[in-house]
Design brief:
By secondary structure, the chain is of the alpha/beta class. The protein has 13 helices and ten strands. The strands form two sheets. The chain has an eight-stranded parallel beta sheet with strand order 1-10-7-6-5-4-3-2. Helix 5 runs parallel beside helix 7 and helix 11 packs parallel to helix 12. It starts with a helix and ends with a helix.
Length: about 325
Amino acid sequence: MTVDDLLSAQVPASGADIDAGGYDRPGARWLERRISDGVLLVQGPMGSQLMSQVGAHDVPAAFWNVGEPQEVARLHALYRACGADAMLTNTFQASAPALARDGVTAPMRRVNREAVALARRAGAPCTLGSIGMCGIDWLVEDSAEYRAARAAYRDQARELLAAGVSGIMLETFTSTRALAPALEGALDAADGMPVLASFAIDDAGDLLGDGLNIEAACMFAQERGACSVGVNCCSVEAATAAVPRMVRAVPLPVSVRPNAGYPERADDGAPVWREQPEAFAAACPRWVADGARIVGSCCGAGPLTTCALSGVLAG
């Protein structure tokens, strides 16, 4: 499917045409209970771990679901063994327009459904379907571009949910403008399943794309139907400062998943992160004390960080 195909897509007024009979509703209920009265530990990143493999820094992460599925399954299993309660599918850039942009020719449905099967193989109580920005720009909500973006998110969310995820995680969104069609599209497919939203922020707590402060962004997400709000792919310091601000802004479960900083570059151009699990472990008690209900890590972190967080939560 090309972006031109998506531009001609018609979005239904509701999710009534979605066959939701196979959705993982027990997993969704478990997720909702856990984040209402406890703390959920989400696995660490997939993309940066896969990019760090020898000779693989230019291979799209989504391709691994069909090209090297055993490595995707191994990473999920490793995160689970380190104590993660929830898996996060390797589908951050697996919408139809993102796959077309990255040159992944496997069908969107296959890429996403394979990713869910690989994540669920780890045996965690729940699996979240990761969706990032699809790359379609729009100016007016009632436009072909907006409808195309909404359709891309709806179609990816539908495949993830039908394959067995317990909820949808819209992550690393840099503006409320980018989030709007994503939330609408995901909710078109959700049929009552959880849809969580997470923003990328700078050290001042403002969104990277439009400069909106995190409080206003969280209120926007709540008004548009998100069941949880949070931040990811920011510094540990920015995440720590943002948690109490989000908790005060909205009565929703808050997630916090910072990254491990900027990578260095090896001689062949491959990114190299310096994982610092101690920094995450030191910050985690404050996140929880300030009201975070979902914790984890993002780009550059890995199983060691998940282990460190698991140890803090268990202790």
